[in-house]
Specification:
By secondary structure, the protein is α/β, with parallel strands linked by helices. The protein contains 26 helices and 17 strands. Strands 11-14-15-8-16-17 form a six-stranded mixed sheet, with helices on both faces. Strands 7-6-9-10 form a four-stranded antiparallel sheet, with helices on one face. A three-stranded antiparallel sheet has the order 1-5-2. A hairpin with a 2-residue loop joins strand 9 and strand 10. Helix 11 runs antiparallel to helix 14.
Length: 704
Amino acid sequence: MKLIFKYMKPFAITIVGIIILTFLQVQTELKLPDYMSDIVTNGIQYGGITESAPEIIGKSDMDELLLFTDEDDTILSSYELVSAGNTVRVKGKDLTLTEDSYQLKDESAVSDYLEIPLVYSYICQSQNIALSEETIDNVLPLIENAASSLSDNFGSMAKLKIGECYANVGLSTSDIQNNYILMIGGIMLVVAGISMLVQMASTYLATKTASKIANNLRRDTFSKIESFSSTEFSRFSTSSLITRTNNDIQKIQELSQMMMRMMLMAPIMGLTSVFKVIKYPSISWLLLVAIGVIMGAMLILAMFALPKFEVLQKLTDKMNSVLREFLDGMLVIRAFNGQKKEEDKFDDVNKELTSVNLFVSRMMNLMSPVMTITMNVLTIAITWFSAHQIDMDVISIGDMMAFSQYAMHVVMSFMMVTMMFVMIPRSLVSARRVKEVLDTENSIVDPENPVEIGEENGVLSFNHVDFTYPGAEEKVLSDVSFEARPGETVAIIGSTGSGKSTIIKLIPRLFDVSGGSITYNGHDIREYRQSELHDKIGFASQKGVLFTGTIRSNIEFGRDISDEELEEAIRISQSENIIAEKEEGVDSAITQGGTNVSGGQKQRISIARVLAQKKNIYIFDDTFSALDYATDKKLRSELNELIEKTRSTVIIVAQRISTIRNADKIIVLDEGKVVGEGRHEELLNNCDVYKEIAYSQLSKEELA
């Protein structure tokens, strides 16, 4: 999580904005059940009546209410008597009175005194009890007895009576009801619209921020991989690095987005909903039971599914490795009819990955029916128990519906937590794998106080160099010493495994020496910045590597060159006929890996790329092996002219004597040691290893 929080830190202000927007979204969403409850209870059940005292009441109705109270003066003082025929403003409409009526002046002063009279009057009407000043003393015990069987919550009957009072003075109760429902419905639409806009804004910001986090993380991971030496590459497989850079960072992006949405929304919504449902203590225990079931399901999921997530990522690495090996070696596999073997190998990994995926998916899919059943049973239970509460007038139908909505919000919050509970461990595995790459300490680093390398070409010197590959027990090179001076061509030859390519890798510091030193211009190459050292070296590897693009873009790779420099590189590398064969010339397309050109053409374009860089040192690691003898001879002739003109140093690793016989100096290696050094003629006379190699390739007459 530290890695994720580290990359979230630059977006702190945006994340605060997302928190605020999420809070607003939750608050607006949780207002909707209240409005729905108002529509059902006040709008439908009470006919749009929300006040506790009638705003207008006929004199006859008022006289009836006053029979049930001794607070006549207090009640009447809160009203103003208006004669019949006058027009008054009530509920936003003008009303012409057909009888003397009382218009309310101050509701707060009278509401407490009118509730019981309104309820008693409603009971009398519902039970057809006749009222008058003479009979009130006789019927009052009957009314009080009927009222005692009801709840103390008389609010609903009082509002129903107020509606009748309005109807008696000529107010349209249907208009009152419709206006209330339309008003609350309009507010609901506005609140829902605000909730939608806030949700869209927070989702947009979360998605954009998560994408930027993944972008920065992928950029840093790629930059870190670029800085790896061969030692670090031997620790991580290519397929694993690809998986970590793509698949694992994608998982981190998904987690980041969920953290900024679900991880914020779930607790805010859950806690706010809990505070809402505690208003209904008689049925809130149902929610506790549902939460207990969900928590139990989450614990079971954690026990069985979470350990499989790391296995999944490792199997994904393995799958990528097998697939990459198959694609890289497709031609060899076909040549040896090894398709069945590779299919079996792929099938084994595929079945293993599928098996683990199926197990995890099944465990995850179990949560869906558990949550669905829990929600449905909870809804039924709420309806069942709420029905009894409604019958006893403890809660209203609207309250039941609101509670049901709040309960679903709490359950949905736990569903979000469940999703996070599943996503976090899997994404943390990915984060740990990416962190391994980012935290890997490079074995080859720049010095704290680097030496300036200078512009002039100098002497490259190996001084008693020893080298052992990481993890190996035996030395690959032992006490290797030689010099390569400006304007010289130094060739290195030896049997397979003698250490030729290792020497080449030590010069640009792909590895660092285990003992001794390599100096250039009088300083140990470890005293220079790697970038400056690489600027002095042009390297053509044994395997020609081309990139997707054109011939021109491949030759210009690493440096902007002029058309004259491009033509010179093409001429020296003997690539002119390649260009001539292509309809678009140097702008002809090169596919990934250079699969649309032959091995020899690929080598020549690679050589042209090196020569176009204008370096002080040119290294050719068995680069001429794919060239025919005639092309090899012409290229070396052109290369010699370039050396004489630029005074560059050329180091050639080769197997063919004809390629190196004219070199200024030939280094002969055998089992990691220098066993001969000199020109071709000298080595034929005094170096048995060189003589053996030479006579195995050419006759005495050809060597003479």
